[in-house]
Amino acid sequence: MSFANITTEQKQQVLGELSAVKADFAARGFFPGTSGNLSMRIGPYSPERFYFAVTASGKDKSKTTPEDFLFVDQNGNPCESTTLKPSAETVIHNEIYRLTGCGAIFHIHSVYNSLVSEWFWERRAVPVQGVELIKGLNIWDQDAAIDIPILSNFADVPRIVPEIAERIADRIPGILLRNHGIYAWGRDAFEAKRHLEAFEFLFEYVYRWELLKSKK
């Protein structure tokens, strides 16, 4: 199925959902300095061909305009004639969609996710055990123990992509870039948002717990 077969109604629904998430996250201060990006897949999926809406590069995400998002294909190329440029990190979204087949990906920068990514960098994962919000990631084991992968961060964003396939974990719907931020995904916008919120709670919990342990 080509992008030309996707209906106006389908496009409007995706853009409406993304706009609502963007407004919510902006109100919570999740997009400092135009950072962060959001995307949502549209239409049928195969690893070789898919389409998604993604935030346009360099926009103030605290404001809503008709040019907040554009549609791109599995290679990050615009599907429609536009002067907009997709986020520089669209290649990361491309790879996550290709590997997982998910429906939405949300990426934000926060102080806590940046701090724990540096604190646990040598371990290459943030360990969390027994915290209730792990259930927010669809992990229901008693006293669950998880490791949230931390990946290298490069200014040359395409250099990050090969590590995604190496480090992505089956049960963990997210990856953390060192001193950069969390990418969380889900079957749809609702699930991706829930996963991101769970990750952010867990990062703050881990940071504060490490701080308390250091004072014993």
TrEMBL record:
Q: Which residues form a coiled coil?
A: none
Is Zinc given among the entry's keywords?
A: yes
Cofactor binding notes: Binds 1 zinc ion per subunit.
Q: Does the keyword Zinc apply?
A: yes
Top-rank taxon, per record: Bacteria
Q: Which GO terms describe its molecular function?
A: methylthioribulose 1-phosphate dehydratase activity; zinc ion binding
Q: In which pathway does it act?
A: Amino-acid biosynthesis; L-methionine biosynthesis via salvage pathway; L-methionine from S-methyl-5-thio-alpha-D-ribose 1-phosphate: step 2/6
Query: Which parts of the sequence belong to the Class II aldolase/adducin N-terminal domain?
Result: 16-207
Reaction it catalyzes? 5-(methylsulfanyl)-D-ribulose 1-phosphate = 5-methylsulfanyl-2,3-dioxopentyl phosphate + H2O
The EC number on file is: 4.2.1.109
Cited Gene3D superfamilies: Class II aldolase/adducin N-terminal domain (3.40.225.10)
Task: Report the enzyme's class at the first EC level.
Answer: lyase
One of the record's GO cellular component terms: cytoplasm
For this chain's UniProt record, which GO biological process terms are given?
L-methionine salvage from methylthioadenosine
What does this protein need as cofactor?
Zn(2+)
InterPro entries, per the entry: Aldolase_II/adducin_N, Aldolase_II/adducin_N_sf, MethylthioRu-1-P_deHdtase_MtnB
Function according to Swiss-Prot or TrEMBL: Catalyzes the dehydration of methylthioribulose-1-phosphate (MTRu-1-P) into 2,3-diketo-5-methylthiopentyl-1-phosphate (DK-MTP-1-P).
Spell out the family assignment given in the record's similarity comment: Belongs to the aldolase class II family. MtnB subfamily.
Q: What is this protein called?
A: Methylthioribulose-1-phosphate dehydratase
